[in-house]
Design brief:
The protein is α+β, with helices and mostly antiparallel strands. The protein has 2 domains: about 20-310, Bira Bifunctional Protein, Domain 2 (BirA Bifunctional Protein, domain 2, 2-Layer Sandwich); about 325-410, Anticodon-binding domain (Rossmann fold, 3-Layer(aba) Sandwich), CATH 3.40.50. About 30% of the residues lie in helices and about 30% in strands. The protein contains 12 helices and 21 strands. It has helices spanning about 20-30, 45-65, 75-85, 110-120, 170-190, 240-245, 270-275, 300-310, 330-345, 360-370, 380-385, 405-410, and strands spanning about 30-35, 40, 65-70, 75, 95-100, 105, 130-140, 155-165, 195-200, 210-215, 220-225, 230-235, 255-270, 280, 285-290, 290-295, 325-330, 350, 375-380, 385-390, 400. The protein has a 5-stranded mixed beta barrel with strand order 9-10-13-11-12. A 5-stranded mixed beta sheet has the order 18-17-19-20-21. α1 (about 20-30) crosses α8 and α2 (about 45-65) packs antiparallel against α5 (about 170-190). The longest helix is centred in the middle third of the chain and has 21 residues, at about 170-190. The chain is elongated and about 80 Å long. Bound molecules: adenosine-5'-triphosphate and magnesium ion.
Length: about 400
């Protein structure tokens, strides 16, 4: 991408009402635009990062047999009444509206009900099981708080996966596989070391639900970590009984602030009973399908990474999710000429700051604010030795490579 073509600008400051650090940095760097409290637009740079996060999740969901689909955000009252969740007293984040044709419709806060209903058309025999489907789909939640930037918004993309098994045993097996795949996702996103599978309340069939919580100063939850065993307990369920159950000792636990990046639930028969999702087993007996649901919030993950890995100069993306890997700056006519040559056909990995009349210092500051992993400088001076200067954003370390070495790195 040529910087001169990118319509977004970098800013020195943001509006005073933006108090979240992730949003402040992302707005200043031109990744997102705040439309209103709790609702942000993803601009070209922000979309690239969000899409890379989604792609990593997609690959890991496919690896455990997930099949991607996408459902509508519009929710029919009927299905949610059958599960008992239409009532705003039961689910306090609903956005609902009236249909011009009469009746009410909701905007999906999650998708258990419609997907269970849909599966009644697909599942009828034990031969149809297990099935596991997922989507990246916008959810709408009328959240009371909206002070955490993109970590908590009223419209957000969620990866939600649903599993359908014939019994508890097959479910348990899949559930553990899903938990493992979550660890792989967070490892690849560069937050694996700080992300803990956390025992929490809220399992409708099991005693606990499993949250994936990342250590983060602005996280809204509190967890107690056992760093050695790599498990954690959410404050909600932190008591002597839970600790005894899990074989954890108080003195080995560390109290930290965490942000929930993912969540996996055993749903059991709750939704299949409510919506009539049954199958015929090997003996011809009709049984309810055993379900699980598995969420990750890609935009919250992006916010958490922005919070955790930034410094006083701006964002610091891990390579895997940076919008571009290199920020290219040419100095002088010869430098610019060499940049044009290197940039050719590599617009997917290089953001070339080709803007005329912008000071080099300003370009460097933008490269840092945007958090591009490597800044590459080519000037008459470096070219005199047939070299390019590569500076790593995360460490500030600078290396001189020959043009050929650098070009080899690119391909
Ligand atoms: P929280 O307790 O933070 O409200 P939740 O328990 O409501 O989260 P789930 O319903 O399990 O979350 O949603 C799955 C995932 O979606 C969460 O783990 C989180 O990553 C993400 N998520 C939930 N609410 C939001 C939101 N308002 N904005 C952005 N991401 C969200
Ligand atoms: Mg919530």
């Amino acid at each position: 991408m040529k910087r001169s073509k990118l319509f977004t600008k970098t800013l020195k400051t943001v509006a005073a009402d933006e108090t979240s650090r992730n949003a402040e940095l992302l707005i200043r760097a031109g990744y997102i635009y705040k439309e209103m409290a709790g609702a942000y637009a993803y601009l070209p740079l922000g979309m690239r990062t969000l899409e890379k996060i989604k792609q990593i999740i997609r690959e890991e969901m496919n690896a455990i047999g997930g099949q991607e689909l996408t459902m509508t955000a519009l929710q029919s009252k009927d299905e949610w009444e059958r599960s008992g969740r239409w009532d705003s007293e039961k689910l306090d984040v609903w956005f609902k509206t009236a249909l011009a044709a009469g009746g009410e419709v909701g905007l999906a806060p999650t998708h258990e009900e419609p997907i269970t209903k849909m599966m009644t058309a697909e599942i009828s025999s034990y031969k149809d099981l297990p099935v596991c489907v997922y989507q990246f789909q916008n959810k709408f939640r009328n959240e009371l708080r909206s002070k955490s930037g993109i970590m908590r918004t009223r419209e957000f993309v969620m990866k939600d996966l649903y599993s359908f098994c014939k019994d508890e045993a097959t479910h348990e097996e899949f559930y553990e596989k899903a938990a493992e795949s979550y660890h792989k996702v967070f490892d690849r996103l560069g937050i694996g070391n700080d992300t803990y599978r956390t025992f929490a309340s809220g399992g409708s069939f099991s005693k606990f639900s499993d949250e994936f919580q990342t250590i983060c100063d602005v996280g809204e939850d509190i967890a107690y970590l056992d760093r050695e065993k790599r498990i954690a307990v959410n404050e909600e369920v932190y008591d002597d009984e839970t600790l005894a159950d899990l074989g954890l000792k108080k003195e080995n636990l560390e109290k930290v602030k965490v942000a929930e990046v993912g969540n996996i639930f055993t749903l059991g028969l709750r939704y299949s009973e409510a919506l009539g999702l049954v199958y015929n087993d090997e003996d011809g007996e009709r049984k309810y399908v055993y379900m699980g649901s598995y969420g990750i919030g890609p935009s919250r993950v992006m916010g958490v990474i922005a919070e955790k890995l930034s410094d006083d100069k701006g964002l610091v993306w891990p390579e895997a999710i940076a919008p571009y890997k290199y920020y290219l700056v040419g100095i002088g006519e010869e430098g610019e000429k060499k940049c044009a040559e290197i940039y050719q056909d590599r617009e997917e990995v290089i953001l070339w700051d080709d803007r005329a009349g912008v000071r080099v210092g300003e370009k460097f500051a933008d490269a840092e604010l945007m958090g591009i992993p490597y800044r590459v400088v080519i000037s008459e001076k470096t070219l005199a030795n047939n070299q390019v200067e590569v500076t790593e954003r995360a460490t500030g370390e600078t290396k001189l490579l020959t043009s050929e070495e650098f070009i080899n790195k690119l391909s």
